[in-house]
Amino acid sequence: MNIRTILAATTVILAASAASAQTPGVTPAQTLTRAQLTQKIEADFKASDTNGDGRISKAEIQAALQRRAAQATTAIHQQQQAEFNKLDTNKDGRLTLAEYQAGTAITVRPEAVDRRLQQLDTNRDNAVTAAEFRAVMLGEFDKLDTNKEGVLSAQEAGGNR
Ligand SMILES: [Ca+2]
Ligand SMILES: [Ca+2]
Ligand SMILES: [Ca+2]
Questions:
Q1: What is the spatial distance between Cα 113 and Cα 100, in angstroms, rounded to a whole number?
Q2: Which of 27, 61, 77, 150 has the most crowded Cβ, counting Cβ within 10 A?
Q3: Measured in angstroms, how far is the CA atom of residue 96 from the centroid of ligand 3?
Q4: C-alpha 114: how far from its chain's center?
């Protein structure tokens, strides 16, 4: 292997990690089809409609966003714990993990809930039906699927973020 080949390989790896950082859950080797997305939309709708009345209320949107924020906070804190364990090699306790993690909790602002409701609730009756949810999500997919083949490549998914 000559140096040119090694450089080319490294560039591909760097580009790949940049793309996956932009688009969590979609690695460069993966694509997302419209059928896969439809399944995911049904699952997401069911997960958000916690009282099962077929409509996602504002309170349910808020709860869903809060669950996602809590998951993101947990992920960040796990990452920080790993970093902290590396930093605090002499274990003198001068920096506590709690201090290190202070201020990194992700919170959901009321504006974010309003924005999400406005985005999904197309007939403005303060609740999101499965049909509204599906239409908006598939609309986003179709916007990103620039070559209209019904498959979202990692490049397409990452391009608009
Ligand atoms: Ca509901
Ligand atoms: Ca509605
Ligand atoms: Ca495509």
A1: 29
A2: 61
A3: 47
A4: 19
The CATH class given to the 3-159 domain equals mainly alpha
What does the pLDDT look like over 66-122, one tens digit per residue? 999 999 999 999 999 888 888 776 677 677 888 888 778 889 999 999 999 999 999
97: number of CA atoms within 13 Å, CB side?
13
Q: What angle do CA 63, 64, 68 make, to 5 degrees?
A: 115
**Among all ligands shown, which has an atom nearest to the Cα of 51?**
1
Alpha carbons within 13 A on the beta-carbon side of 15: 11
Ligand 2 centroid, distance to 47 Cα (angstroms):
17
Cβ atoms 133, 41 nearer than 8 A: yes
Instruction: Please write the tens of the pLDDT for every residue from 112-152.
Output: 999 999 999 999 999 999 999 999 999 999 999 999 999 99
Q: How far is the CA of 121 from the centre of ligand 2 (A)?
A: 4
Query: In 49-151, where does DSSP find H-type helix?
Result: 58-87, 97-101, 110-120, 130-144
Tell me which amino acid residue 156 is.
E
> Nearest to residue 26, comparing CAs of 144, 146, 129?
144
H/E stretch holding 36? helix 34-48
Confidence of residue 159 (pLDDT cuts 50, 70, 90): low
